[in-house]
Amino acid sequence: MLREHQQGGREVENRQINIELHHQEIPNWEYDLQDKSNEPVMTEMEEVMMETIILEDFPGGRIIKLNRPRGLNALNKRMADEMQDAVDAAKNDHSVRCLVFIGATNCFCAGADIKELTDVKSSQDAKNFSGRYQTLFKNIMTFPKPTIAAVNRFALGGGFELAISCDIIIAAKNTKFGVPEINLGALPAGGGTVRLPALVGDKVAKQMLFFGEPMETEKMFELGVVNMIVDEEELLPRAVALGERLGAQSIEAIIEIKKLLRRVDQFNVAEAMSAENETFAMLWAGGDLREGVSSFIEKRKPVFNRHI
């Protein structure tokens, strides 16, 4: 059960969160995508608010809401730290058998907070910036229990890397997915260059990485990245409904299945992640990344180095 620390060090255990879900007992994916009858209906849930995220429990699971609405839920160090703490707590909480990641308000996540890159002053700073998100997304990907990303509006850059770190992606119609880092003279530094080709294939990965142009939900569904498409107002109820179903499965079996799936090319993935981290730092040292960040802050077109 989720606990909230209040002033004076007193722990107050949240009251039981009640959610009414009306759906077929064992609906299949086709039913969930096409049939609008018997949709899950949710009652109001209690919240524990942190600085950048909101935590909510439902029977068998926990919702982690990204909550920086003025910045389109852009990831920053504080959010990464709070998400990591929340993931660690859920890992050791036997009442939490599934995690759901969703944006608290207007979108899922538009990427990393570019303003934080202005604090990068050295190659080591660049490695630390990249490593922070590599570690977070790796810990979500290797979280032993099932994870769901419920995505709407934007899943760009680090937001896209967060989504593809989850086991299941439910997306609202017309959501934009992409890795626009090339426009800053950079690359996805949270594991995106490692995971994206495995998801969409080498050619599509190159297209997304080279041009930085987003793709919409329907295309992501065709490519097998998105599992389910829903109307935006259905996003959270559907995610919770799936979370309840997963929480009711044999968690022991799911944990072992995830272990087996992660064994595939695990050593090569570790090498590739290290290379991605080094390359991100190299791009900073070469100047293009710094120029990309400066142009973004100054709202002008970047002038990248044309001589290699």
Structural account:
The chain is of the alpha/beta class and 308 residues long. The chain has a single domain, classed as 2-enoyl-CoA Hydratase, Chain A, domain 1 (Alpha-Beta Complex). It has helices at residues 29-34, 77-91, 123-141, 158-164, 192-200, 202-211, 217-222, 235-248, 251-262, 266-286, 288-298, and strands spanning 3-5, 11-13, 48-49, 53-58, 61-66, 99-103, 147-151, 154-156, 168-172, 176-178, 215-216, 228-230. Helix 2 packs parallel to helix 3 (123-141). It is globular. The protein starts with a strand and ends in a 10-residue tail after the last helix.
Briefly, what is this?
This protein is of the alpha/beta class and 308 residues long.
CATH superfamily annotation: 2-enoyl-CoA Hydratase, Chain A, domain 1
Bin the helical content: 40-55%
The rounded Rg comes to 20 Å
General shape: globular
Structural class: alpha/beta
Level-1 CATH class name = Alpha Beta
Count of structural domains: 1
Total count of helical runs of at least 4 residues: 11
- The neighbouring-strand order within the major sheet is 3-4-5-6-7-9-12
Summed over residues and divided by their number, the pLDDT gives a mean of 85
- Report the order of strands and helices: EEHEEEHEHEEHEEHHEHEHHHH
CATH-level-2 architecture:
Alpha-Beta Complex
Reported for the largest beta sheet, the result is: 7 strands, mixed
Q: What distance separates the N and C termini?
A: 55 Å
Question: Strand share of the residues?
Answer: 5-15%
Low-confidence regions? 1-43
Could you tell me the number of beta strands?
12
Q: What is the CATH third-level topology name?
A: 2-enoyl-CoA Hydratase, Chain A, domain 1
